[in-house]
Design a protein that fits this description.
Number of helices: 4
Distance between the termini: 45 Å
Strand order of the largest sheet: 1-5-4-3-2
Number of strands: 5
Radius of gyration: 18 Å
Length: 142
């Protein structure tokens, strides 16, 4: 996940169709996605998590492959869940140290459950890998 300081974030220009800022009370299924390359989802305060659901819907149900950017009241302790929900980029709120953000990702090496980006749970990936390795070994024995 890319981390951006609040001062480095540039919102989409008026009338620019490739970048869309979506309020957190709008259903993303109503958004025409043709030509959209970036969607900015807003967290008006860190306790309001509706943008997580929007990101998940955009990735999993609507198949959006462009950039999903978290804006607003974004704190570093939210970053891991944002990434698992489908966000690519997070714009940290004013005063939050971006250099501390990487520590959040270093704390968690992996997850047992699937998420918006890596759909299969960890055990299924392992099972598929083991089954694939066993099949290769079986074929090599001929």
């Amino acid at each position: 996940m890319k981390i951006i300081a609040s001062t480095a974030h540039t919102p989409g220009a008026e009338g620019q169709n490739s970048i869309v800022a979506l309020a957190n009370d709008v259903d993303p299924r109503t958004l025409p996605l043709e030509g959209v390359t970036r969607i900015d989802l807003n967290f008006p305060k860190f306790t309001d998590g509706r943008a997580y659901s929007q990101a998940f819907l955009l990735r999993r149900r609507l198949g959006f492959t462009g950039e999903i950017r978290a804006t607003g009241d974004v704190l570093i302790d939210q970053l891991v869940q944002m990434q698992r929900s489908g966000f690519d980029v997070a714009v940290l709120r004013e005063g939050v140290d971006a250099s501390a953000a990487q520590r959040q990702f270093d704390r968690f090496e992996g997850f047992y459950q699937g998420d918006a980006v890596h759909v299969e749970p960890h055990f299924a990936e392992t099972e598929h890998s083991a089954a694939y390795a066993a099949e290769l070994a079986r074929q090599d024995s001929y």
